[in-house]
Amino acid sequence: MATIEVRPDGYNYVFSSHLEPKARVKQGDDVFIYTDDAAESRIQSKTDYPKKVLSTVKFLNPQTGPIYVEGAEPGDTLAVSIKGIEYTRDFAFSAFAEFFGGLSSDPLTPLLQDPLPEHVWIWKLVDDGAAFYEEELDIKIPSRPFLGTFAVAPDLEAISSLAPGPFGGNMDVPDVRPGNTIYLPVFNPGALFFTGDCHGSQGQGELCGFALEITAKSHLVFNVIKGKSIDQPRIESPDKIMCVGSARPMEDAARMANCELIKWMVADYGFTWGEAYELLTQVGGLYVGNMVDTFYSLVASVEKKYLKRCGLKK
Amino acid sequence: MATIEVRPDGYNYVFSSHLEPKARVKQGDDVFIYTDDAAESRIQSKTDYPKKVLSTVKFLNPQTGPIYVEGAEPGDTLAVSIKGIEYTRDFAFSAFAEFFGGLSSDPLTPLLQDPLPEHVWIWKLVDDGAAFYEEELDIKIPSRPFLGTFAVAPDLEAISSLAPGPFGGNMDVPDVRPGNTIYLPVFNPGALFFTGDCHGSQGQGELCGFALEITAKSHLVFNVIKGKSIDQPRIESPDKIMCVGSARPMEDAARMANCELIKWMVADYGFTWGEAYELLTQVGGLYVGNMVDTFYSLVASVEKKYLKRCGLKK
Amino acid sequence: MATIEVRPDGYNYVFSSHLEPKARVKQGDDVFIYTDDAAESRIQSKTDYPKKVLSTVKFLNPQTGPIYVEGAEPGDTLAVSIKGIEYTRDFAFSAFAEFFGGLSSDPLTPLLQDPLPEHVWIWKLVDDGAAFYEEELDIKIPSRPFLGTFAVAPDLEAISSLAPGPFGGNMDVPDVRPGNTIYLPVFNPGALFFTGDCHGSQGQGELCGFALEITAKSHLVFNVIKGKSIDQPRIESPDKIMCVGSARPMEDAARMANCELIKWMVADYGFTWGEAYELLTQVGGLYVGNMVDTFYSLVASVEKKYLKRCGLKK
Amino acid sequence: MATIEVRPDGYNYVFSSHLEPKARVKQGDDVFIYTDDAAESRIQSKTDYPKKVLSTVKFLNPQTGPIYVEGAEPGDTLAVSIKGIEYTRDFAFSAFAEFFGGLSSDPLTPLLQDPLPEHVWIWKLVDDGAAFYEEELDIKIPSRPFLGTFAVAPDLEAISSLAPGPFGGNMDVPDVRPGNTIYLPVFNPGALFFTGDCHGSQGQGELCGFALEITAKSHLVFNVIKGKSIDQPRIESPDKIMCVGSARPMEDAARMANCELIKWMVADYGFTWGEAYELLTQVGGLYVGNMVDTFYSLVASVEKKYLKRCGLKK
Lengths: 314, 314, 314, 314
Prior knowledge:
nine-stranded mixed β-sheet; mainly beta; homotetramer; Jelly Rolls; 2 domains; six-stranded mixed β-sheet; Endonuclease I-creI
């Protein structure tokens, strides 16, 4: 198994099969990927207002990739284990931008009201990297890094790096974090993996639209599950299985995530659809990953301990 | 402080100010309330199919109440502490009913497809009441009781006990559980409190629409916060504050819950709206209580430990 | 057939079966009903801003009714023919109110942005009542009166007069106009009819939330279709049949309206559901009545001329 | 002005700037474009069930294009006048496909219910091309052709030809018909125009998802409005101006269409936003183009006669 470092010489802003691979990796390789923040490092201080520093920028959310994974073919599933995430600078930013965010009108929910005022928040890494502190707020919160964007190239289409979908993408789901494995459907030879948008922390919903945006170096290991096809992104942690649905309105994302989770329980855990539907009713989890992106991402989950039969049946 | 038992001689199916109070209680009284299950105990075995046993029934979700709380006046807030919930029988039911549930079309999302097949699940209380076991599934899950319906009478209207709203109602939010205090706006003299629909366990979303439906005796204590007015139901646990938004589509429930939580942080915790919006972005919680009722209920939350300033500001 | 005039001595603000009938009428009677405008005549000039004149008012959209229709029983359908609408004053108002309207955030879609500025528009009746003219706009539009609110009392519940639903209510659908017959399901003895909220004109969607609000005297004739039960309001014009669905999100209202229209075509016009689904795909109508009320109302329609078979089948 | 015929030697299934132009045209040229039907002519008889004939097909909705329009630059607006549409065969098909259509669950609104049964409808062109007749239905309806898909290449992305959006696309809006001019924003040099998916007739909503699908030859004339930038597709008929919003949920499409129409009235007709908002409230139109595609398309409109001031202001 090789160790491979992917330092991008330029970023991409679409998930597409028409881009030149930035690297080629084998299954099991230790791959270290450098990613820029969602605003391409243009916001560094409280006065770097989004309108000022981003108005000349055509695209946001720069992606490192595509990375070609040897052996991946359409119809397979790509399994990506996140071994670790290190920050590559000592602060994260968050911001309120005009006509953006979960409690603002925006181009997808346009209204006639004036925008909210812009504001920039600078969260400094403190306590030897264990926490972030924002001085204006005078509040400290734990560091909990994850990758906001995690994708493969879709089939034929080239999709904006701001969008989540069946290919993964800009899901902004905090469970895409170290210790977990993310499963994505493969649509193209080599899978063509992209990542970016590291968050130092994020609440469920990513309310204002900018979490703790930070640059990072992530350690990933890729594997390919041959001949296994999935419909939506899946996540496995040591104690849970989870599925992501990305759609609008939000109830469609909830339906999508739960239908995919039922399919998983049926295919791999010996459930009928009815048994799975019943069990999720009683012990399933369902949280909002983001309520700010072009599609909302919801995560349906179940703890693995409930997927085992007791053996008490007469 | 008196001890008062409310054993209903009949149930109500609307939250309304026009109903005769079943009991009058004082603030601080220990009130023990008996509640029937959501199907009024008509489903007791695997062959009690909903269509058969509920087709002659006009209304579902029987409520115990109204309970008149002395001293509550319009514009106040009712604080209800849940001291405990005891089951009053040894099993809970769940069921798949035709054209009902989060992964089925229903009268509010009507489609032309045939209904899902009916099914009844009987979950027996085992392990000295610590768990439920369903034999067909051969699966055991922990007992985690809460009250699915928790309401005051609205202003002027009489609302079906199947509906959640600003008055509380059929929220199906698992945090309405022992150890927590629920805050509801008061619209009428005496607040006129209703409860019912105890669940022995429920996943986030209440996917098939019937959680572990069970009869119960709940221990509640009522208090009135004079002159304080809230817009949506609020919940306080030892370590979190939470707000419930009930609406369709689901994103409107998410907006409602988060706006209410920001108002709470501004009014009681010394935040500006911008500070609250930013903090929730990084550490807020947002889960789906139900995705099956007449309105979806979402819960926005934040841990109290994050609501304190560090005192590090220069 | 008698002639009956209903001049209310007070208004109601809920559709409810617990209210005393204001009048009792027989089928076929000529009933003339006086209605106030949606703001109870409190807005009469450009400076009667909603916040100022409505802030002391607890309820909006005053209703005349209930009117008891002899012979109507639960399970029947009430058919109401609108013979004519006369205005009872010489102007209508429209207004922008804070946090209200289709292009503003509101309590059901709450956001953090400031409200739009208030504004009042006074439309004078001109051209012998054939048109309305607004001087600030310097624009004249034709008079096209209809009744925004048209309801029966629901079953058990008491619903705000601001809400539309299966019982009719505040649908704000321009086809509730002279020349048409509106069908409503009967839930209570006497049907218990309510109306109000006359509009001198209204675009599809009722965009800002206040159409041409005006007082009126309407001529209605009631009939009862015994033993026929419908699920949603229906409208018949000389050349079309139409169904109203009221729901959020808007696609659920569209599904509801079309499903009801298919049921109608199957029950009364000899179609299978598949034939009806196909025909509506090619020639159905689907417009937005309101996008501002507590539920959106959409109208699905088909021209009667398409409901006849050609007789060309071999 | 030249006459140019575009007979595609192969179709495209994405709107993309990376495809080789099929033709280059000048402003004012008479361009005649041949298009296949949405199922690429695979459904020709009642037994060509979608699952059977489309299961081996990877992409649907074949597009003719891109067509490079000389002089169009990013930031301009492309104005396309539809001079005429001729059918190139004597029948249209419609069909019910599994998990597709406005009254069925589908991959974007997934549920657990079984699919609706498949069915194919063959509508023969009769009465010298003035009408379509379906023998099983024994119903005849008028021929009213329009182009379901009408697009320019978006910026950077490559979007499935099944999707509508700001670039136009698969809007399925019946007003994209002969006699009208359609305005689209230009994102790339040459605009890169695509069209396809001719419908011989379609109701509002395109309920089952397949309108009268037919092959056609359309006569278009392109013009470029230099330096004028629009946000959503616009349509001009002899007596109306209209804007299309494509989004989910449907209310967001309604907001988008109306906001764009207000911008148009402000920019070109001398209205303030408040005047436009008020006028649309009273006389605006708002219908559903499609309720079946990846985004719903709604059309907001106003008659030109209302856009003129009376000159009566004192």
